[in-house]
Amino acid sequence: MIRYEKLKKDSGLFKCFTGLTVKGFEQLLPAFRQAYEEALDRRDEESQPARQRRRGGGQKGALASIEDKLVFILCYFRLYPIQVLQGFLFGMGQPQANHWIHVLTPVLNQALGYEKQLPARQTKDIEQVLVACPGLEFMIDGAERPIRRPKDQERQRQHYSGKKKRHTVKNNVVTDKRSGKIKVLSRTVEGKKHDKKLADEQAIPFPPGSTLWQDTGFQGYAPPGVQIIQPKKKPRGQDLTPPEKEENTRIARQRIWVEHSIGGVKVFRITHHIFRNLRPDFDDLVMETACALHNFRLDYPLTPVATA
Fold it and tell me: Where would you tag: which of 57, 86, 186, 261 has the fewest CB atoms within 10 A of its CB?
């Protein structure tokens, strides 16, 4: 069975299973403990009839320590095994694994919020987050995730993206060009919705004087007071001139960093493999949490950053 005390002795295996270094894990642990205790307090307050037995009494569960609980949910995000396998790895059955997944995911999300790593979702929060970014240079792009083929024909039509014949859900992300952190995350929508239409609906309040790098999927998206840098689309029936091709290449070499950020989110395979969980809005919670884990990892990189 996977246990923190054993896993931390092998730093390479620890990173493989959790996506974090031991140092990063230990930094996140106090916030996770606080969020978990608050979740228990809310559960006790809402329980009817009131809880009689003191907390911590009775038989010890498979996840006895707070460290094991954090390893459990990070492992689920990082590897995304089927729940039968997740339970087997941690010494429990599939129903227990399902229970702990849905208990600990919001706890992990709240802990990352305490660490100030969650992307902004609401207009007021977005304004504060973006204006605090030095340089005011941002990148926007869409991120799609495959889901199981819906049984309902209308949902099939809405979620069919046309890419690799998959049904998907989608978010737009806005990253800070300097840090690579995901600062803004849109709501989760069906994969058929166009990137620009989703951006128009979200109406992101970019600070005046900002520079926004985007691809041709956002053609026509131009928030007021923002300088747009975008590749030139090839005219129908014509070719781009050599200078235009060179400029597009230059832009692509800069825009690759937003792809790296999305790739950093998809290190957590729950956002990369076909999403199997059916609980309403859980796909949105998972994407927000995975973006926050990517941001957190940038503060605690897997390999030391060389200094002059």
Answer: 57
Q: Which residues pair with 228 in a beta bridge?
A: 212
Return the minimum-mean-pLDDT range out of 99-113, 223-237, 286-300.
Answer: 223-237
d(CA 143, CA 134): 25
CA separation for the pair 90, 162 (Å, rounded): 38
* β-pair partners for 172: 142
26-30, 61-65, 83-87, 294-298: least confident range: 61-65
Q: Please, how many CA atoms are within 13 Å of residue 176, restricted to the half-sphere of its CB?
A: 22
Q: What does the block give as tokens for 66?
A: 């707070």
**C-alpha distance from residue 51 to each of 33, 36, 188 (Å):** 21, 17, 37
> What are phi and psi for residue 167, nearest 5 degrees?
-100, 130
d(C-alpha 253, C-alpha 260), whole Å: 12
